[in-house]
Design a protein that fits this description.
heterodimer, A: alpha/beta, seven-stranded antiparallel beta sheet, seven-stranded mixed beta sheet, 9 helices, 16 strands, B: alpha/beta, five-stranded parallel beta sheet, 17 helices, globular, binds flavin-adenine dinucleotide, binds iron/sulfur cluster, binds FE2/S2 (inorganic) cluster
Chain lengths: 277, 467
Amino acid sequence: MFKIVKRTEMAQGTVILNEIEAPLIARKAKPGQFVILKSHEEGERIPLTMAETDPVKGTITIIYMVVGKSTALFRDLKEGDGYQDVIGPLGRPTHVEKVGTVLCVGGGTGVAVLHPITRAMKEAGNNVICVIGARNKDLLILEDKMKTASDDLRVCTDDGSYGHHGFVTDIVKKVLAGEKVAQVVAIGPVPMMKAVSAVTKEFGVPTMVSLNPIMIDGTGMCGGCRVSVGGETKFACVDGPEFDGHKVNFDELMMRLRAYCDEEKQCYEGYCRLSDG
Amino acid sequence: MAEKQAKPGRVPMPEQDPAVRRRNFEEVPTGYTAAMAQEEAARCLQCKKPGCVEGCPVQVDIPGFIRLLTEGDLTAAIRSIWQKNALPAVCGRVCPQEIQCEGKCILAKKGTPVAIGNLERFCADYERNHGTGALPPKADPTGKRVAVVGSGPSSLTVAGDLILKGHAVTVMEAFHKPGGVLVYGIPEFRLPKAIVAQEVNFLERLGATVECNMVVGRTVTLDELFEQGYDAVYLGVGAGLPRFMNIPGENLIGILSANEYLTRANLMKAYKFPEVDTPVPMGKNVTVLGAGNVAMDSARTAMRLGAEKVRIVYRRSREEMPARSAEIHHAEEEGIEFMLLTNPTRYIGDERGRLTGMQCLKMALGEPDASGRRRPVPIEGSEFELKTDLVIVAVGSGANPLLTQSTPELALNKWGYLITDPDTGKTSKKGVWAGGDIVTGAATVILAMGAGRAAADSIHKYLNWGW
Ligand SMILES: Cc1cc2nc3c(=O)[nH]c(=O)nc-3n(C[C@H](O)[C@H](O)[C@H](O)COP(=O)(O)OP(=O)(O)OC[C@H]3O[C@@H](n4cnc5c(N)ncnc54)[C@H](O)[C@@H]3O)c2cc1C
Ligand SMILES: Cc1cc2nc3c(=O)[nH]c(=O)nc-3n(C[C@H](O)[C@H](O)[C@H](O)COP(=O)(O)OP(=O)(O)OC[C@H]3O[C@@H](n4cnc5c(N)ncnc54)[C@H](O)[C@@H]3O)c2cc1C
Ligand code: SF4
Ligand code: SF4
Ligand code: FES
């Protein structure tokens, strides 16, 4: 069992943080890598990026949004409970290099994934500008940490309840128009990554996105996670999860993410009915 | 039943009725009774130069164990099999006997070889259900430690052999359950998972440690294993890279590799969804591409998951189908249709990206190719469209590069398989052995086990004498 040593609720209980004992993984993990977790015997294998690792304490931290049955089951785990299986570190680590100014763009729980990458970019000596967004103020996560990790943090909300009123792409445009940016990193919901990539393409700035297709094994053995990048099929779990945003076929990714829509609804509703008594 | 006269035919193994079993996941052949086993065993001529033994890749003493069986000494019979084959309950069920032991049986000429696989299965099942479960004697601890990577049949063989020789063994598996293809690939109705679990449990009772969730190359590297004090490492990581057809439309929803489909159905038990959390697509009109064991397993799984129609689409003809003959026969009985000499060229989807059909070409057999099989050539103008809402691609697998890429000292051939010494299984890296599908490419359980045994012998020598 992989014990949960710390649990916090963020964004009104829709986003949960778990710090988990996983010494072998904590020792090896690098920014950008993910783990696959399964909470119980009959559970699903769910991929989540590591938001933080502590090799000395032997723990890893995940931050996830509750969207369906499996993440709802995760939410019900208390401190002291544990995950039956945690597998990793999986995926390729982020390529971190000193390139000058880096613009990091995060949306929703994507900010959790973006945080360790932002920190690594700064530690590598880059000037790091960050833009983070959420639907509203209450759903915004990790603002403080992102502030510390970057040189300049901009915040926006879709409804204007905090920071700039509008989408992250508005600010991205502004930054790119005013400054020489060497690299953009965009992580968040697929439509957001698609929109940011479209903007940065206009400006000709290389852009890295982190994809989240449906996965099973996470080791390149099932092909369920296949994505089209530059017209070629790639397995996100071993070739990614990070890819060149200018080459990713986002529409196909969005379509494939809906593969199990009906089954997921059935599963989740069944679970809600049970847990509501 | 037991009339005293030479029986020309084989004693058939009782099976679930096809009409019933095509909708359940219970095992298809239900096993011999003791009387049936005796009757079948009595057909063996106890040849002086038994062809059957030659046909078995690990040379099980077939006349020997059959004689012990006829004498009623089942404990001695299973011990005799174990000398060469650590997993007889598995091999009795899944070996392609018709081209191995039974294919070389002297009675095969008359079309009625001794049912060696069935008898092997009977002995193993009897031992499992009635045996004492006593552990075999173990050599004194040598103080040497061996890491066995992967937990498929080749790794389990290595672990079993080395633990009995007194070495400390740790099996490291990437998945959350041990067994390799035996648990994630081959379905319950052909190989009950309880059998594999018991084999793994047996190893643990002998003192082996089984660590799941260990992706070697990621969670720990080979060099780190040596730093941690392991003296030798065996790689039995299989050939788990799915191959696709590389034709347009392949990423539509409703096209899965057999690996994904079977992993969802078997390992994640998706056939019990929504009781379990992992879904598997339920096709109404299912098409399976390929005609090997993997294709048969996929097709028969789809039927059990409630499909209305299941078709196997294969570009060659019936003679070339690589699956075990028993599986082809079972698939036909269960109502699977075979569409031979047909090759898909393109997938068709709707506006939501869901598969609705497949464009195919008819093929004809041309000249023999490098494999000696007649090469299928497309017939011009023979395109037609097939309606289908789920395609399972079972056209073979390749070498998964996850581990080998993180260990550059390991020499690979041009297909990415590990190069090893054919007699010992030694790789190009000191202290590292390999065997099974990661060396040969997708093959069979018994060949993977044979490679494991040879490597275990070599590892034992190395640990004792350093070579
Ligand atoms: C490499 C990677 C890293 C990720 N990191 C994070 C993270 O740090 N934080 C976070 O909140 N989310 C992350 N995700 C997404 C997360 O895995 C899904 O939200 C989760 O699997 C949903 O499971 P569910 O059963 O609760 O929801 P479901 O009801 O099953 O599905 C809800 C949505 O999640 C998608 N989904 C379902 N199953 C999977 C699966 N096995 N793999 C991927 N997506 C799936 C579905 O397409 C659907 O749109 C990541 C995904 C990947 C592939
Ligand atoms: C659906 C299907 C049906 C089949 N039917 C038959 C049949 O009827 N008869 C027959 O003889 N053969 C059959 N085969 C073939 C047979 O199963 C294989 O040849 C055999 O299992 C190979 O054994 P192996 O030990 O080499 O590897 P595998 O059984 O493939 O096991 C490899 C294991 O290593 C693990 N692994 C991989 N990488 C790592 C890593 N980096 N770290 C840790 N662990 C890792 C994998 O998760 C896996 O569990 C079938 C195969 C399939 C897929
Ligand atoms: S191991 Fe396989 S080939 Fe050998 S005797 Fe048994 S069934 Fe036949
Ligand atoms: S070849 Fe056939 S008849 Fe002869 S010993 Fe082997 S099983 Fe018996
Ligand atoms: S998750 Fe199976 S290949 Fe990527």
